[in-house]
Design a protein that fits this description.
- The structure is a single chain.
- This protein is of the alpha+beta class.
- The protein has one domain: Nuclear Transport Factor 2, Chain: A.
- It is 27% helix and 38% strand.
- The chain contains four helices and six strands.
- Strand 1 and strand 2 form a beta hairpin.
- The relative contact order is 0.19.
């Protein structure tokens, strides 16, 4: 199922806009993992239901789609977009983001690294959900 970078970006952003868990997860390999600055590393099938439960609206503006290969030679596709994220209460938590997708041989996302500055988003998210986000949690005791 090799797909073009633009098609992958279009499907991915459509899943985010509509909160479509099935569409989002269908873009990933069976063992696909999302690395999020707020939610931490999670299997795609766990990440998207959590994200969409914390989203009342997602307005997205695509800025660029980039493709290449990583240091192992695996295909990568990156989506740079503005995410006007609305939390469950409707509170705005907007940010610009680059999602870097490392693909398997079939064009499925093996890992997705979400990259953005959380300085403004993290406090809004934590206030909304009532608990600390992944990176602000203290390390586990040895």
């Amino acid at each position: 199922m090799t797909t073009s970078a633009d098609d992958l970006a279009e499907k991915y952003l459509q899943a985010l806009r509509t909160g479509n868990v099935a569409l989002a997860v269908s873009l990933f390999s069976d063992d696909g993992v999302v690395h999020s600055p707020l939610y931490g590393p999670q299997p795609a099938e766990d990440f998207y239901p959590a994200l969409f439960a914390d989203t009342s609206q997602a307005n997205l503006v695509l800025k660029s789609v980039m493709s290449g290969t990583d240091s192992t030679g695996a295909r990568t596709v990156s989506f740079w977009f503005h995410f006007d994220w609305r939390l469950p209460s409707g509170r705005a938590a907007p940010f610009d983001v680059v999602d870097v997708a490392c693909l398997d041989a079939d064009g499925q996302i093996r890992s997705l690294h979400i990259v953005y500055d959380t300085v403004d988003v993290r406090p809004a998210y934590e206030a909304e959900v009532g608990h600390r986000s992944w990176r602000s949690m203290p390390p586990a005791a040895p």
